[in-house]
């Protein structure tokens, strides 16, 4: 809560435990559904995501945790990004050690269900090949002319990839062009 003078008041604080995925907490996102507001926290060192319900007075109640495994690659999760497509809310998560982008559909109860996993080295979507996500770092949603895109950076590949969200289903499609921009050690510019 912020006062008229801009001073902040602490309402809730949770620390990492054996059940929460908060070790190395790096990124936070939120989603509001018919059942409330939910906070998503990326635990980089835990390689997972913790989900909390935000109470009316600012309290945080643990709802669920998503762990790194073969079906949900979240090793060294770095960034989270929320977007909506065709009325469905999605949460995108970048996993740096897995070189993957995982897309979750967000349930009305705040729960996360894997909708799509894109591995930069083995992906079958158009134009996401090779080491496109080698050291995947950040994700940003971009809305252009009614279309939704995700810009994804790769720290080890010195690149940015642009992925288009399918307006009907929400997961990602490569665009018709080469979607990977590679940088060099020089001052790169695009016109």
Question: What does this protein structure show overall?
Answer:
- A hairpin with a 6-residue loop joins strand 11 and strand 12 (172-174).
- It is built from no helices and 13 strands.
- 0% of the residues lie in helices and 49% in strands.
- By secondary structure, the protein is mainly beta.
- The model is unreliable at 175-191 (pLDDT under 50).
Which SSEs are present, and which pair or pack?
Blueprint: E1 25-33, E2 36-43, E3 48-54, E4 60-67, E5 77-85, E6 88-95, E7 100-106, E8 112-119, E9 136-144, E10 147-154, E11 159-165, E12 172-174, E13 180-182
Antiparallel strand pairs: 1-2, 2-3, 3-4, 5-6, 6-7, 7-8, 9-10, 10-11, 11-12, 11-13
Quickly describe the structure.
This protein has 191 residues and is mostly beta strands.
List keywords for this structure.
single chain, 191 residues, mainly beta, five-stranded antiparallel sheet, four-stranded antiparallel sheet, disordered C terminus
Provide the β-strand percentage band.
Answer: over 45%
**Rg, Å, rounded:** 17 Å
Low-confidence runs: 175-191
Give average pLDDT, whole number.
84
How much helix is in the residues?
Answer: under 10%
Order of helices and strands: EEEEEEEEEEEEE
Task: State the shape.
Answer: globular
Count of extended strands:
13
Tally of alpha and pi helices: 0
Largest sheet: 5 strands, antiparallel
Class computed from helices, strands and strand pairing:
mainly beta
